[in-house]
Amino acid sequence: MKKILILCSFILFSVLSFGQTSLTVTVKNIREPKGTIRVGLYNKEEDFLKKIYQGKLVKAVGTEVTVVFDDLPPGEYAISIVHDENENEVLDSNKLGIPKEGYCFGNNALGKFGPPSYDKVKIKLGTVPVAQSLTMKYLGQG
Q1: Which residue, 28, 38, 63, 76, is most buried by CB atoms nearer than 10 A?
Q2: What does the alpha-carbon distance between residue 70 and residue 110 come to, in Å, rounded to a whole number?
Q3: Is the separation of the CB atoms in 131 and 22 below 8 Å?
Q4: Which pTM was predicted?
Q5: What does the angle CA 30 – CA 120 – CA 135 come to, to the nearest 5 degrees?
Q6: Pick the CATH number of 19-135 from 3.40.50.880, 3.20.20.70, 2.60.40.10, 3.90.930.12
């Protein structure tokens, strides 16, 4: 009976993890080793920059950090990143709306007058792990 239970557990685990993959995000060009790097992952176009599917926070301890999202089902995902230097949980901007803290998006996409579109930012995940190397941008005075 114990062997059957172990076998059933193994089969259930195999079925649940089948098709899952990971996404490794490396963030480069961090201006100062202070504050927090906030990485948001979105799995629906209508949720982009509104409702995070998964998020990761990591201390900015150097000019580069890496975060890993494990066990992701295949599909489309978009990435947004903010360097929250003063750790107030928002992207600070000046009076003109220009960000004073660093930011970047998946595929290193840029928007013309605001954030890039979901289509420019999205990546497709299958069953093979994917890595993105993204470069922080800083526009306004910090």
Answers
A1: 38
A2: 26
A3: no
A4: 0.83
A5: 10
A6: 2.60.40.10
What pLDDT score was predicted for residue 19?
A: 73
User: What's the gap between Cα 50 and its chain centre?
Assistant: 14
Identify the DSSP state of 122: -
Sequence-ordered alpha helix ranges (H) in the chain: 2-17, 118-121
Q: What is the CA radius of gyration of the chain?
A: 18
First to last CA, the chain: 64
Q: Give per-residue pLDDT as tens, 60-111.
A: 999 999 999 999 999 999 999 999 999 999 999 999 888 999 999 999 999 9
Q: Where are the domains of the chain?
A: 19-135
The string of pLDDT tens digits covering residues 13-36 is 444 445 799 999 999 999 999 999
**Contact at 8 Å (CB) between 60 and 34?**
yes
